[in-house]
Design goal:
The complex is a heterodimer. By secondary structure, chain A is of the alpha/beta class. Helices cover 37% and strands 16% of the residues of chain A. The mean pLDDT of chain A is 96. Chain B has a 4-stranded antiparallel sheet, sandwiched between helices. Classes of the chains: A alpha/beta, B alpha+beta.
Chain lengths: 551, 94
């Protein structure tokens, strides 16, 4: 058994169902061994698509995503996807071919220092020197990717190692590291904070979804009746229509969420890193609140804001352990819920053109329960977060940390392979979709019934909005009015679609799209001056949200 | 602020590079560094003197997350006599 054949067996031993990849010179031994694999290889049309599809698979399934590419440009094309997984804490194992060991360091054809290039964006990187090294490295890579705070791991595999003999192949099975649990003194200190509080707010982050602690946070919130806000990645950890949910906080958060955090006397941050998009100006963020921070990653505790009490370890355990005698937060909760009602979204806009948020609200209502929405980055991404309702975190896949335009389509492909019984819908923009439009070919190749909703404002809308608001309306390189004709383009890839322009046709178009047996591309031109509101200007506090006209 | 950190780092491919990368990326300047170990030993003893405006404890926690790092100790800030010594002497002293 050679190194490549061992790699395939080891991936099988780890329970790999799908590998997303693209072949090339240095990785050919692996692709040869792949012919005997029990798992399926999904050929994307760009390595970035492979990495992002593996990311989408991992988020939707809760398992480790695996991607595969060759050396040099194959590896560099993976990098955006690896960074995306790193910043959003997604478990990923990326395998790259590398030139033969004797050629490494000679600037050989398709040689780059993949280990060095990826160092800042992986939890760890491996470069085996012999085929025998793979025996321990592959299970270690999976253990590291899935343990603690999840993240990506790279295995850079020289061609001679892939072709070398493994002298004593054996498979260790899944390695697990016992998770840390919060200690009792810290838990007691946290309970004391809760008992003393009059106006607590629960701040739910993406770590809850990663930890599988959604039921625990809901039970905790409901037990105490604590108003809850979510980060972008925490959306769905508590259902959007739950009476305790005040919506997303931060730059494009709801007024109810931002004001609740501002007025709170206790902020319970769970699985979140107090990202600048969520906190706004940090020294005026939650100015009256004691901070109780729960996380699995010790480096997040006190990184940006010193907690009064921190609970390091498994989130489900911490949340369960915090449940104690009930406190009466009725007055505070009623105040928050009343503010939420008073500041509810308004969908009445002038004219008969499509208003993006209105379409998303209707789409959300029409989709079956088992629906996964992936989105790209920009205005539509914020509209999805604001106006669609999610009952679980894995149903909302969004590039939160890196903000990767081009994420939506490949992530949807990965999500569909993870959950083929789900309706998967991509919401994208005309800027983002062009970043990975080639993956429409992957939809066609595997007959994946993903629906694409494309908002087309012929602009880089979010950049345009910021130039308007903060750069004296000096619009620089945001005009995309020379976009291709999108439905024709989709049809060229074998994906049928239609154009939706009038508000009165919205429901019928959504129905047609969802009823289509295969992939479908819905092209929705919208007003080029549409904005995302509210907006916290850069450097301002979250309660200094501004709001303009809805078009 | 000047900080002095002692690390026990696995003698594996790229381990020192990872440590230096974290120090740079997290906003600290390297002032001095000493490494004790050999290709035959399983780990290095590493001492670093760094300068930065952020909390040294945050850097310690980030370094501790590296798979190659077994132990990180944050010893002192500017005034400590150990931090002002050349690291080879400090390593012996500690």
């Amino acid at each position: 058994m050679n190194g490549a054949q061992f790699l395939i067996r080891a991936l099988e031993a780890e329970g790999t169902e799908y590998v997303f990849g693209y072949p090339g010179g240095a990785v050919m031994p692996v692709y040869d061994a792949l012919l005997e694999a029990s798992f399926k290889h999904i050929l994307t049309r760009h390595e970035q698509g492979a990495a992002l599809a593996a990311d989408g698979y991992a988020r939707a399934s809760g398992k480790v995503g695996v991607c595969l590419a060759t050396s040099g440009p194959g590896a560099t094309n993976l990098i955006t996807g690896i960074a995306n997984a790193f910043l959003d804490s997604v478990p990923l194992v990326a395998v790259t071919g590398q030139v033969a060991s004797e050629l490494m360091g000679t600037d050989a054809f398709q040689e780059v220092d993949t280990l060095g290039l990826t160092m800042p964006i992986v939890k760890h990187g491996f470069l085996p020197k012999t085929a025998d090294d793979l025996v321990s490295m592959v299970p270690e890579a999976f253990r590291i990717a899935r343990s603690g705070r999840p993240g990506p791991v790279i295995i850079d595999l020289p061609k001679d190692v892939a072709m070398g003999e493994v002298s004593r192949p054996h498979f260790t099975g899944r390695l697990l590291r016992p998770e840390q649990k919060a200690d009792e003194p810290s838990l007691q200190a946290a309970r004391n904070l809760l008992v003393r509080s009059k106006k607590p707010v629960l701040y739910a982050g993406g770590g809850i979804v990663a930890a599988g602690a959604e039921s625990h946070i809901r039970a905790f919130a409901e037990h105490y009746g604590i108003p809850t806000v979510t980060t972008l990645k925490g959306i769905g950890s508590i259902p959007g229509d739950h009476p305790l949910c005040l919506g997303m906080l931060g730059m494009h958060g709801t007024r109810a969420a931002n004001h609740a955090v501002h007025d709170a006397d206790l902020l319970i941050v769970v699985g979140a890193r107090l990202d600048d998009r969520a906190t706004g100006k940090l020294n005026t963020f939650a100015p009256n609140a004691a901070l109780l921070h729960l996380d699995i990653d010790p480096a997040e505790l006190g990184k940006l804001k010193r907690p009064h009490v921190s609970l390091l370890g498994n989130l489900a355990f911490s949340l369960q352990s915090l449940v104690g005698p009930k406190c009466d937060f009725t007055e505070w909760r009623t105040h928050c819920q009343s503010h939420k009602r008073q500041t509810a979204w308004c969908y009445d806009t002038p004219g008969d053109r499509i208003y993006g948020p209105d379409l998303l609200r209707r789409l959300s209502a029409c989709c079956p329960d088992k629906t996964i929405i992936t989105c790209d980055v920009g205005q539509h991404q914020m509209w999805v977060a604001q106006h669609m309702c999610f009952a679980s975190g894995y149903r909302h896949l969004s590039s939160g940390g890196l903000g990767t335009m081009g994420y939506g389509l490949p992530a949807a492909i990965g999500a569909w392979f993870a959950k083929p019984d789900h309706q998967v819908v991509v919401v994208s923009g005309d800027g983002s979709i062009m970043m990975n439009i080639q993956e429409l070919a992957t939809l066609k190749r595997y007959e994946i019934p993903i629906k694409v909703v494309l908002f087309d404002n012929s602009r880089l809308g979010m950049v345009r909005q910021w130039q308007t608001e903060f750069f004296e309306d000096r619009q620089s390189e945001v005009d995309l009015s020379d976009n291709p004709e999108f439905t024709t383009l989709a049809e060229g890839f074998g994906v049928p679609g239609r154009r939706l322009e009038k508000r009165e046709d919205m429901d019928e178009a959504i129905s047609e799209m969802l009823a289509a047996p295969g992939p479908f591309f819905l092209h929705v031109p919208i007003d080029s001056q549409s904005n995302v509101w509210p907006l916290v200007p850069p450097g301002k506090s979250n309660i200094d949200m501004i709001e303009g006209a809805h078009t | 602020m000047i900080f002095y950190l002692q690390l026990n780092v696995s003698n594996r491919l790229g381990s020192l590079e990872r440590v230096l990368g974290v120090i740079r990326f997290r906003g600290f300047d390297l002032l001095d560094m000493s490494v004790h170990g050999s290709p035959a030993t399983p780990s290095f003893f590493v001492g670093v003197k760094v300068q930065g405006s952020r909390a040294g404890e945050n850097l310690r926690r980030q370094l501790e997350k590296l798979e190659d790092v077994f132990l990180v100790e944050l010893f002192t800030v500017t005034a400590d006599p150990i931090a002002s010594q050349p690291l080879r002497e400090a390593a012996v002293a500690v």
